[in-house]
From TrEMBL:
The keyword Transport applies. Pfam families: CarboxypepD_reg, TonB_dep_Rec_b-barrel. One of its GO terms (cellular component) is cell outer membrane. Residues 336-746 form the TonB-dependent receptor-like beta-barrel domain. It is found in: Cell outer membrane. Residues 1-19 form the signal peptide. The keyword Transport applies. It comes from the Bacteria. PANTHER family: TONB-DEPENDENT OUTER MEMBRANE RECEPTOR, TONB-DEPENDENT RECEPTOR. InterPro entries: Beta-barrel_TonB, Beta-barrel_TonB_sf, CarboxyPept-like_regulatory, Plug_dom_sf, TonB-dep_rcpt-like. Keywords: Cell outer membrane, Membrane, Receptor, Signal, TonB box, Transmembrane, Transmembrane beta strand, Transport. This is Outer membrane cobalamin receptor protein. Gene3D superfamilies: Carboxypeptidase-like, regulatory domain, TonB-dependent receptor, beta-barrel domain, TonB-dependent receptor, plug domain.
Length: 806
């Protein structure tokens, strides 16, 4: 591996040092500057390249065009009399095609005494006061170890855990991976990742192609009222529009896939951007001798049509097709790999989202109407001892689908007031056909059930923002009502009354203190609501309710310069009505990293949990030419010990599966002359808790044959901890800008110093020379057991990528 890595690096540097064709070429940037409320053009606005000397003055309709812009990632600064100065997110400038950047300006608040409101590159929005952070295109594209995957890049942010299992489980502020919501240009996307864990949000690779993204924002508190609240986060992704001047094509050979993206004008008022991706991840996993071989494909499209300056329509499509097979050709069959082959099923999965958004701008605001449909099809099967002749251990086939409609109206009421209000209606369906062999208290049980449910969801929401004291004080008051037709407990929206309040005060020119509090609700997963017993009864219908979480945050931020920010935030989250398993007495939310469908079991909404901690972040977009981010989080995530048959949770607080305590992320990136970019990321996470195995129950022959996995001793739930995890990722990019095309190459090295990460010590039966399990002669009905080290990570992963754009 070292020789291969050295050779790859040498080739990369030799290629990068060749002739610098196109050096000194410049590009063009154009677009329209509009009023953020009315969407009318702002006449004669001044637009300049941030940190440069080139710029332009918009015409009477707000249109501008800047020639001779240096190639690479750039930002624009726009200003006009009566408006706040704004600095755009970064975007890529090439010589082969002009870049379209449309800019919205907000009216400047009235002055109070000597206080003047000025634009800030990292200003927080007035109606979302705490716990939201933005990612620029450069951060998404160039993040070391991120492989242009938005699900991995957000792990650089404070409060977001990075774990050694290299999955995209989004674990935010101590919450489980099922506590997150995702939106793409206002459209909810239930499935963000390939090979998703049904009932949660994890997976291996993001479905969203980063070629489409203009920016991303992660909310970890004070969630927007118009978005169905996740209890831990809302990830809001914004896509760019297709090029309105000429056809552009981009081909990418990435770390794990091949991608082709086109964007083009459609007539005089429309544009389109579309992509397809085909993975070769199975080749990489085969070379690494991993026990499973995943293959994924996806497609994405956005069509935009501007009828006029006040009426816009765009259509978004996103689809995935995934297939995972076991790797029986491994030469080095270590105990941990052999164990994975024993229990891991083969998986086929596909999903899609298709939606449309119509926006009507008025003189005092805007109306947004959102309609979409989505579906997830998930099937799993596992043969006993991987031999079809011995019958199945798992046969799981499931569908989730939805039709969604939402209307939102945003209005500027004048005198510092802003209103946002609307409602939503959804039709949802879920079906499941399941056979599985389980081990319940050491006894093998065959479970068969078939289920299908349909329900209607409804929501109403409103929020009011008020700016005071010349823009130094901002107050936000919001409320939301949710309900669904699943049961009498969930049907009454007053039972899910969700108020929230936030305020910020800029008490000095560079200092802001903020606080927020709110009550949020989240529906249990389909898998729990639709679970039926052998008689066909929905056993959870009268036992499940919306999960409730009361949250509070307080923080202070200091902005030493226009491009830097230092912040400190404290948070507290209290959970009630959390679904608890009636099989193993654990919280449903504590599952998801190593299971295939979360929540398909008898459950009751009696659980309580809490998470609390402190986040610190320093970010500087121009620290002596470096983009530098340091984020540290200390927190606790705990569940109340719970016993089956008790009317309420009892006992001491116990760490949840996501209680890593310490999270640290350091990211340094630098753009160098002649098209070079370099970066590194170092991550640290404290050891996660785990539940020891019950060696006696696990060794029983019937129990092992049912699941081929050891049985956890839940009397000692999460009483042990793994070692801490840390990893260094390095990335080098080189881009050549030609007159008619662009060529880019990159080298990304994950786990550069080859840190070995280990999971819970494994437990499995011993095998004889023929590969058969060895019975324990001293204990009839039991196997002789052995322990082994379960290596989760510890391989240097170098990847070489190429992008070509026309």
């Amino acid at each position: 591996m070292r020789n291969y890595l050295f050779a790859l690096l040498l080739v990369f540097l030799c290629v990068g040092s060749r002739a610098q064709e196109g050096e000194g070429l410049r590009g063009t940037v154009y677009g329209t500057v509009t009023d953020a409320v009315t969407h009318e053009g702002v006449p004669f606005a001044q637009v300049v390249v941030e940190g440069g000397s080139v710029g332009a003055l918009a015409d009477s309709a707000g249109r501008y065009r800047i020639e001779r812009v240096p190639t690479g990632y750039r930002s624009l600064k726009a200003a006009s009399v009566g408006y706040r100065e704004v600095i755009t997110p970064s975007f890529l400038v090439t010589a082969s095609a002009a870049s379209e950047v449309n800019i919205e300006l907000e009216m400047e608040a009235a002055r109070a005494g000597e206080v003047v409101v000025t634009g800030r590159a990292m200003r927080h929005t007035e109606n979302q006061l705490l716990g939201n952070r933005a990612l620029s295109l450069q951060q998404i594209e160039k993040s070391p170890g991120g492989n242009r995957d938005i699900s991995k890049v957000v792990q650089n942010l404070p409060g977001v855990a990075a774990t050694p299992i290299q999955r995209n489980d989004l674990i935010v502020r101590g919450g489980g991976p099922n506590e997150n919501k995702f939106y793409l240009d206002r459209i909810e996307i239930p499935i963000l990742n390939h090979f998703t864990t049904q009932g949660a949000s994890g997976g291996n690779v993001s479905i969203v192609n980063s070629d489409f993204l203009a920016a991303a924002r992660l909310y970890t508190s004070t969630f927007p009222v118009g978005r169905a609240s996740g209890l831990s986060s809302v990830l809001d992704l914004r896509m760019r529009e297709g090029n309105s001047e000429k056809l552009r094509v981009k081909a990418t050979v990435g770390a794990s896939d091949l991608a082709l993206t086109i964007d083009s004008p459609v007539g005089k008022k429309g544009s389109i951007i579309a992509s397809v991706r085909q993975s070769y991840l199975q080749v990489l996993f085969g070379l690494l001798e991993l026990p499973f071989l995943p293959t994924y494909n996806d497609a994405q499209i956005k069509y935009s049509h501007h009828f006029d300056s006040r009426n816009h329509l765009y259509i978004v499509g996103l689809g995935s097709l995934d297939r995972s097979r076991l790797n029986f050709s491994m030469k080095d069959l270590t105990p941990d790999r052999q164990q994975i082959l024993e229990y891991l099923p083969e998986n086929d999965q596909w999903s899609y989202v298709l939606g449309a958004v119509y926006t009507r701008y008025t003189s005092g605001g805007s109306l947004n109407i959102v309609a979409s449909t989505d579906r997830l099809n998930n099937s799993l099967q596992k043969w006993q001892n991987n031999d079809p002749a011995q019958g199945k251990n798992i046969d799981y086939r499931s569908n989730e689908s939805g039709l969604r409609f939402r209307a939102e109206y945003d209005a500027d009421l004048g005198r510092g007031f802003a209103l946002s209000a609307g409602g939503g209606l959804q039709r949802a369906a879920y079906d499941n056909r399941t056979f599985r062999r389980l081990s319940v208290d050491g006894v093998a049980v065959d479970e068969r059930y078939s289920t299908d449910i349909s329900l209607v969801r409804y929501a109403a929401f409103a929020s009011v923002d008020k700016s005071l004291a010349g823009g130094r004080v901002h107050v936000n008051v919001g409320l939301r009502l949710d309900g669904n037709s699943y049961s009498a407990q969930t049907a009454d929206p007053l039972e899910q009354f969700s108020p929230r309040l936030g305020a910020s005060y800029r008490f000095a020119p560079r200092w802001t203190v903020s606080a927020s509090a709110g009550r949020y609700y989240q529906e249990p997963p389909y898998t729990s609501m639709g679970y039926r017993d052998g008689t066909g009864r929905l056993v959870n219908r009268q036992r499940l309710r919306y999960i409730r979480s009361d949250q509070a945050t307080v923080g202070v931020a200091f902005e030493p310069t226009r491009r830097s920010r230092l912040s400190l935030e404290g948070f507290y989250k209290h959970y009630d009505r959390y679904p608890m398993s009636l099989i193993d007495s654990t919280a449903i939310g504590s599952k998801g990293a190593d299971v295939f469908a979360v929540g398909a079991e008898p459950a009751v909404s009696d659980g309580r949990a809490r998470a609390y901690g402190l986040e610190a972040e320093y970010r500087n977009d121009d620290l002596w030419g470096f983009l530098f981010t340091a984020a540290y989080t200390y927190y606790h995530s705990e569940f109340r010990r719970w016993e089956r048959g008790t009317p309420a949770p009892r006992g001491a607080w116990t760490p949840s599966n996501w209680d890593y305590r310490h999270l640290l992320s350091l990211v340094v990136m630098r753009s160098l002359p002649r098209g070079w970019d370099v970066g590194l990321r170092w991550r640290y996470a404290g050891g996660g808790p785990y539940t020891p195995y019950d060696a006696e129950l696990s060794s029983e022959i019937d129990s092992w044959q049912a699941s081929h996995r050891p049985v956890a001793d839940y009397s000692l739930v999460n009483s042990e901890r793994l070692p801490a995890f840390h990893q260094l990722d390095v990335r080098i990019d080189k881009t050549w800008y030609f007159r008619r095309w662009t060529l880019g190459v990159y080298l990304d090295i994950q786990n550069a110093y080859n840190y070995k990460a280990y999971g819970q010590p494994g437990l499995m039966p011993e095998r004889d020379a023929t590969g058969q399990y060895v019975p324990d002669p001293a204990r009839p009905g039991h196997y002789k057991m052995m322990t082994y080290e379960d290596e989760l990570g510890g391989t240097i992963i170098p990847t070489f990528g190429i992008t070509v754009g026309f």
